[in-house]
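can u pls check wat happens w/ PBG
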Amino acid sequence: MPGPTSPVSRPSDSISAGELRIATRESPLAMWQARHVAARLAEHGIATQLVPLLSGGDTDLRPIDGTRQVGLFTKRIQQALVDNEADVAVHSLKDLPTQLDERFALAAVPPREVVADCLVSPAGKTLAELPHRARVGTGSTRRMAQLKSLRDDLVVMPIRGNVQTRLAKLHAGEFDAIVLAEAGLLRLEMDDLPRVRFSLDEMLPAPGQGALGIEVRSDDETALVALKLLDDLATRLAVVAERTVLAALHGGCLAPIAAHGIVESLADQAAGRLTLTAVVMSTDGTKRLQETASCNLGATDGEAVAVQLGTSVAEKLRAAGAEELIQAAR
Ligand SMILES: NCc1[nH]cc(CCC(=O)O)c1CC(=O)O
């Protein structure tokens, strides 16, 4: 233990000079996320450089783990870590497959801001205000199922593309409304876009929604120490629990599975508590399985507790018939 006169050692003192290279795709959301991480690191005196990666072309398709279905959004920037073109990969955690690659460490999960989904329509209507048989755009079975259970007259239609593309389709009149993660809109500085936030009871979010996940090479101590500065334990434990449900039910990002974790009183270790709610639905919204469970965090390894909680919630959902609903949605 250092004596009272020793200088206080801050983690950033041990980071050697040199810029950390942050890989980013060129979409506006990806660029915002990379710049956000650069700004947070700058607050700790850590210099960075953005490495924009061209999207499209063969490089996008190089499989890094043998599978092509999962991780479409995340692979290109992971490849930049493997090729040593960059040191830091910033993801929307929602897009990061639950099966993590051992070559990378999830070095930081920064504080989550807005977790909820919202309904976006030209006049900012609530779901109840939309006309009979309104056309609502979403590509997500999770959102489709919850929309149908709220209003079974709605015509839920598939929509693709990035946030800007979806908004353009809405404003071209292809849909009466669309559902988006509010976090994405806020990151894109669309604060003034007419929208109505769903409550968590109406529309439980996707595992990891609204959070970022930052990967570095597992053996890159410099990057690990630097990114650790941005890690928020409460958010990390919540998303670990949420993602454990998805993994345990073999859900993948296309399954009608929602999960939301929340940590209370983390500062007071003895009272810290993690609560997890997860939902599995039929895509037509008529069947809904829901489980909620809590655990004390105590002084134990929080992540192990979060995994246990996620596993036990997934087990209860499975016992209630979750896998049948997930299979049927494929
Ligand atoms: N799959 C696309 C995607 N990935 C992350 C976000 C938004 C930000 C987030 O959820 O963290 C979005 C758009 C959306 O779902 O509306």
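The CA atoms of residues 106 and 215 lie 5 Å apart.
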